[in-house]
Amino acid sequence: MPGAQPEKIRNNPEFRAQLEAIQPDAIVVVAYGRIIPLWMLALPRLGCINLHGSLLPKYRGAAPIQWAVAMGDAFTGNTTMLLEEGLDTGPILLQQTIEISPGQTAVDLFEILAHSGAPLVVETLAGLASVSLQPQPQNHAFATFAPLLDREDGRMDFAARTAHELYNRWRGFQPWPGAFTTLDGKKLIAHRMSPADATAFAPPAPAQRARFTSRIIASSPRALKIPGSSSSKFNWKARSASRPLNSCAELLSNKARASGIGFSDSPPRGRALTQGRSERSQDPHLRSAQSSLRRAARRGARPVALRRSAARQGRQCPFFG
């Protein structure tokens, strides 16, 4: 079968002539993202069929899969429909429901919907050809929209959103725009996270402190956990416009300390995560951990080395938004 990949469809007489010469019975459109011109909608006898990654009329628009995950939905699905002039407003042909697991990201869901959507298109074409499938109009009163993603959608607003909402947005906005915040003017990107349960606020046992690898983001009373790993590698990355940050070393800068950032195994109940200077100065273990990290930073140690230095002292370098 010959193929063609035109740069544009509208106002493209050569491509129009090519399609009119073929006289297709149906045209299938997947992830095109633009309005199909009227001449093309009217060309095939069975119509132009679109595979859309949501249960229409929910999540009409360019990013239905991402927004379904970002909004914390428990399920979504695929819809085949007949295209018309409006944006995802055409009559529904077939639908299938897909569960969204709590830990799935938009990347995971894209692959699942793609694999399950292909046979749905085949079934739709067969139903139209045999006249056994009748289009059903959408209920426009229940329509919601899934607009194109913007970079600012990935910004974590700890004051306005709960931990679960931030986590769902992180899952939905993978791989772009992801989830990020700023500290002292530097951009911090969260690569992994999970909501912290009540046990995350309890200090670890002394024997476990060397293996305590989670960072807590607190926006009282909301909290997220940035999981660590047995190899003590950082699972979040901090970047500025010009260079990568040295993580803990940057957090120990004079400006960060002046802002009240300190080290803590877990956030105190009913208070901000940070400790005041007077409290920090009264904790000999904390002073020792901070001194070790400062010495490591002056030696030019990389974040993994800084992290291990903190682990030996039984302390953590928290991640702040």
Estimate the strand proportion.
Answer: 15-25%
Helix tally?
A: 10
For the largest beta-sheet, the strand count, sense and barrel status come to:
4 strands, mixed
What is the string of helix and strand elements?
Answer: HEHEHEEHHEEEEEEHHHHH
**Which consecutive residue ranges, at least 5 long each, have pLDDT under 50?**
209-213, 228-281, 302-321
Terminal CA distance: 54 Å
Q: Kindly report the average pLDDT value.
A: 75
Brief sketch in words of this structure:
The chain is α+β, with helices and mostly antiparallel strands.
Question: Overview of this structure, please?
Answer:
With 321 residues, the protein is of the alpha+beta class. It has 2 domains: 13-142, Rossmann fold (3-Layer(aba) Sandwich); 151-312, no CATH class. It is built from 10 helices and 10 strands. The chain has helices at 13-22, 38-41, 64-70, 106-129, 163-172, 248-251, 254-258, 277-281, 284-298, 303-312; strands at residues 27-30, 48-52, 75-82, 92-99, 180-183, 186-190, 194-195, 215-219, 222-226, 236-239. The strands form 3 sheets. It has a 4-stranded mixed β-sheet with strand order 1-2-3-4. A 3-stranded antiparallel β-sheet has the order 5-6-10, with no helix packed on it. Helix 3 (64-70) packs antiparallel against helix 5 and helix 9 (284-298) runs antiparallel to helix 10 (303-312).
